[in-house]
Amino acid sequence: MAMTRIPQNEITIFQYVFFIVGAQIGIGILSLPADVAKGSGTDGWIAIIFGGVLSIIASLIIVSIMEQHPQDTIFDLLLRYFGKWFGKLLSLLFSLYAALAATTVVFTSIHLVQVWVLPQTSNYWIMILFMIPGFLAARQGVRILGRYAEIVFYMTLWMPLLIAVPLKDGHLLHLLPVIKEGWLPIIKTVKQTILSFLGFELAFLLYPYVKEKHLAKKGIIIANGISMAAFVFVTLVGFIFYSPDEITEYVWPTLSLLKTIEFPFMERFEIIFLAAYLFVLSTTGIPYIFTAVFGIAHVLEQYDHVRVLVVGVGLYIIVSFLYTPPFADLQAFSDWWGKTGTIVGYIFPVVLWLYMKLYQWLRGGKPS
Amino acid sequence: MKAAALLLCVALFLSGCGMNTKLDSLTMTLTLGLDTDGGKLLSYSSSPVFNKDAKEHTEVIEVNASSLREGRYKIDLFASGRAVGGKIQNVVIGKALAKKKEIPSLLDVLYRDPKNSTTALLIVYDGPVKELMESKQKDKPRLAVAIKDLIMTTAVDKQTVKTNLLDFHRTLFDKGCTPFASEMTRKNGKMMANGTALFDNKGKYVTSLSPKETPFLQLLRKEIKPAIPFTLRTAALTGKKENISVSIEHGKVRYETRYRNGRFQFHVQIDAGVIITEKIADIDISKKQKKLEKMIAHEIKTKTTALVKTFQHHHVDPVGFGLYARAYEYDHWKKVENDWGKAFAAADVSVSVKAKVISYGVIH
Amino acid sequence: MWIPSSLAEVEATIQATWGETPDLVVCRLNVRQLKKDVVLLYLDSLADKNSINNNVLQPLLFETHDATNVEEVAVLIGQKKYTNLWSEVETAVFQGESVLFIDGEQQALLLDTQGWPQRAIAEPQVESSIKGAHQGFIETSGKNIALIRRYLPNRELKVKELVVGRRGKTKVALLYLEDVTHPEVLKELEDRIRMIDVDAVVNTGELMQLIEDNPFSPFPQFLLTERPDAAVSNLLQGRIVVVVDRSPSVMIAPMSFIAFFQTIDDYSTRWMIATFLRLLRTLAFFIAIFLPSLYIAAISFHYELLPLNLILTVGESREQVPLPPILEAILMELAIEMLREAGLRLPAPIGQTVGIVGGVVIGQAAVQAGLVSNIMVVVVAITAIGSFIIPNPDMSESVRLIRFPMMIVSSLFGVIGMAIGLMILVIHLACLESLGTPFGSPFAPVRFRDWKDTVVRFPLWTMRSRPLSAHPIQLKRQTKTRK
């Protein structure tokens, strides 16, 4: 008996910020220190800052695109500018991109759980387990997802403190000298950080729901800033704790770091940490699942996205029965996500923006 | 919600998932021993037994295997429970083995499988590991606890070091320093901590530091807290063979790094604040404080310089001079980073010490 | 059907309506005021005989001044009503009123002479309080409204009365502060109550279930209380109090999750102590849900989590136990629940025996027999205490129920299962609404200003605005009176 009399599918500016932060901080951060260290040693954190600046620029472009039609999601916008068929095709591609992202996150999470915590549990059981909260959350609208992202953000604020505990055994000397090999390797490494920053492109979907639209630009800068701070923090902790030669030995240095934490009542914090980190992963995976499902429902002109969601969740479970991705495949997934993410998050907004300008100019300067 | 509940019920009955590792049916290796006996690799596991009927509450299994992982499978053959390594407290390696083989390759499984503990202490045992593993000490708790307590408390007194598997891994892979671990032996049927074992950058045992030298290694590594105690002779002051015990309560150790004439130059500046803990010699401290301070400084300087000489002689760098070389002379470091031991052996290291007595205790 | 004007017809109709009703009193008398015959009708069991004798019969029989019509008949009763509908007569008689029919008149006089058996106002049984008032609600809605009015002598306190149930005809009163409560929320509640179509609503708990937002949620979405001061405190926050006649507990809506962990005593206690107690309850909430599952997870999956000394202790204590941890835990938890249920419905002296038997069986014999480990007993005991600390009985029961799925999922997936379980709870709380207002407020959505009165309690003077969870239309509640 859900009789809601105060229906507002609106999210506050904070929910919007944390929604994007949640989508950005996910699987990337666990391997980020090793990834950037491979490219540019202990100067990798500078590359992350560059990556952050890039993502801020891209997100500002996205917000200014969306500002032109404040009631439209990207799917409405594509139909508006590209006509029915081409618009739908683009919408479908965007949804497929989101589905790829969701798949990468889900399978990587399962892999993490299997490697670190439950080595003997088959992946389809974990998939079924993960899909229960996934379904419950993704069948709701943006408002609930916003609330969820917000509360999870506050619930996970203790995690950086835990990560900082091993710092006492670290050497700041590892960071010196700054800019060891010049700027070139740093610039080359920026590409590695793109995957971690992906998530801001969900502003394409979120913008029409934001209540305080005039703050949207500020909000997305803050969101990218928070994520950047988190990435730089984790990377610096990794660099200070591990020597530059050693960190590349680890696949997930952040988790290996936590193995050393021992309290008199509990040891092996990486297990607890990983369990709690599932919350963080859920705020990455669920928004992407939602975006994919919402987009496909939009393309199919279904008012309610739950039916598509049921099909999607069913597909995930069936696939997990048939296919256990080996680690190499997961990396391929990540690579693909990184590549398509570069297109969707960075190139597509610029092209779309130019196209819209051209379109409006041809129509005599009036927005259609 | 209903669907979820149903799924869970199904899951419960199928129970195909979640191979439980029930705590009381595990053979948890608490102390892992590795040794060699003529070309064979011997692996020992000591694990607690949870059963009232069993007379011994510790089960020791010996197998010979080509690797640790294979060893575990063999241990499984003997063990009443499933053998697991998640709670290993100590890894004891026989000195004979450490001399012969590079130990990182032996320990690989402990790092690779995230289920294994990386906070286990790494200990080099001077003697056959078997005698330690099978020793029964009536006045001590379980072997694993006894060994761990022994090393931890001795490390607080700075007479040995506390190196866990992860520390070993970190120092091993860092090109700027070489690993070290605590050393144990047995004397009169009792186990005792016995200084520090040093490894080269491949992880092969090189030499040992005595319990008397170890405090100065700790000093150089800036591991001063809570205090570094040592005893020195006061012959220079009183002309008699007498002792005075002091302990360094706080201090600053600064490193200056330069590269001159084709080699690295390190200058170590130690400012130590010491307190007098025991005075057997008949000296009026308040009158001769300056002299005493000078003597303590001299003692520290001699000891540390000798220690550095030892390191250079063996081409090892447990202190981590290489870290400073990398941080401050990166270009020159880059050329020698793969053979730092040799470059360090050629480096000039000078030590200067200032000591200050901050307390005599509560009696004059 | 209209009321017939001749008394003979009236008597016939009475006979037809109440055939076999031995406690019905039909009394024909001649009234001197009117010089006419009248019939007085009431139900002996529901009416107050003293009142009828002194205030009705006496003036009717002995008053001498002349009256020409019904309106002028003198009786010593303040609340007089007139009706010409037979159905209203029926209702009135069943409410304990007396009806006066006058010969030749179409109108009947309804006199308020109610007097049914009722209990004296007493200390609330379930929610006892240390510093709050010691008056609890009773089974008469009029008295209950009176108890609330005593706290709020304010014309903005409105009472809206509805009748629910075809047979039961239960009077349901909605109390609210008109300048604080959001009209949409009120409308929503009113609509939902009006939509109810049942035989009777016996207790407030039934009404609550009929109008809940999500009946499939394990959590209660409305609060039941038997304390007038708690009801008033919620009224002041812009919530609506629903007083159901014949039920000693009132319902408060809309509600937020955290309010179930607060008691009225918190506001009478100094803020540091109140904060400490609230933190303790929050801790108890998590312990009650997660401790047994954490134990199961640690024993069956993650022995690494426990420090060595604890492992040795646990291992030794479990050595003889034949059951897997999940069954061991469920066995003990069920035993505790049974004991609790047994003790609850038994008279107090026997209840104590149950406690002793349970204590001996669970505490000693089970461990000695090797059925369960003593660590498990400690875990179960702490969990039980944790669930008792939660002040609201409905929420406490919800928490005890959630524990079981948590235990199962943790026996299958360890801490990962627990994390997913918590995730489902969080998502559920973020979705759940109470009368269309967010149930999880101020946590989901996050409203920092309202955190002053959640798991902590700030000093009273700092809480200058009403919490947003009930969407009050008047936010300000007090001014800043001290620094």
TrEMBL record, chain A:
Keywords tagged on the record:
Germination, Membrane, Transmembrane, Transmembrane helix, Transport
What name appears for this protein in its UniProt entry?
Spore germination protein (Amino acid permease)
Q: Which PANTHER family match?
A: SPORE GERMINATION PROTEIN A2
**One CC-aspect GO term:** membrane
Identify the domain of life: Bacteria
User: Into which family does the record put it?
Assistant: Belongs to the amino acid-polyamine-organocation (APC) superfamily. Spore germination protein (SGP) (TC 2.A.3.9) family.
Localization per Swiss-Prot or TrEMBL:
Membrane
Q: Which InterPro entries match?
A: Spore_GerAB
Q: Does the keyword Repeat apply?
A: no
Its membrane topology: Multi-pass membrane protein
Sorted alphabetically, the Gene Ontology BP terms of this entry are: spore germination
Major place of residence? membrane
Which spans are transmembrane here? 12-32, 44-65, 85-110, 122-139, 151-167, 193-210, 222-242, 271-294, 306-324, 336-356
Automatic annotation (TrEMBL), chain B:
- Report the superkingdom from the record: Bacteria
Q: Which organism is it from?
A: Anoxybacteroides voinovskiense
One cellular-component annotation, GO: membrane
> Which Pfam families does the entry mention?
Spore_GerAC (PF05504), Spore_GerAC_N (PF25198)
Residue span, Spore germination protein N-terminal domain: 23-184
Keyword Membrane part of the UniProt annotation: yes
**GO BP terms, alphabetized:** spore germination
Q: Which InterPro entries match?
A: GerAC_N, Spore_GerAC-like, Spore_GerAC-like_C, Spore_GerAC_C_sf
Compartment(s) of residence:
Membrane
Q: Which family does it belong to?
A: Belongs to the GerABKC lipoprotein family.
Locate the Spore germination GerAC-like C-terminal domain: which residues? Answer: 194-361
Q: Indicate the secretion signal residues.
A: 1-20
Q: What is this protein called?
A: Ger(X)C family germination protein
Membrane topology for this entry?
Lipid-anchor
Which keywords annotate this record?
Germination, Lipoprotein, Membrane, Palmitate, Signal
UniProtKB/TrEMBL annotation, chain C:
**Membrane-spanning regions, if any?**
279-301, 346-365, 371-390, 402-430
InterPro entries with a match to the protein in the record:
Spore_Ger, UPF0353/GerABKA_families
The UniProt keyword set, sorted, is: Membrane, Transmembrane, Transmembrane helix
Task: Spell out the GO cellular component terms annotated for this protein, sorted alphabetically and separated by semicolons.
Answer: membrane
Which is a GO BP term held by this UniProt record? spore germination
Q: Which top-rank group of organisms is this from?
A: Bacteria
Q: Which family does it belong to?
A: Belongs to the GerABKA family.
Specify the protein name. Answer: Spore germination protein
Q: Which organism is it from?
A: Anoxybacteroides voinovskiense
Its taxonomic placement starts with:
Bacteria, Bacillati, Bacillota, Bacilli, Bacillales
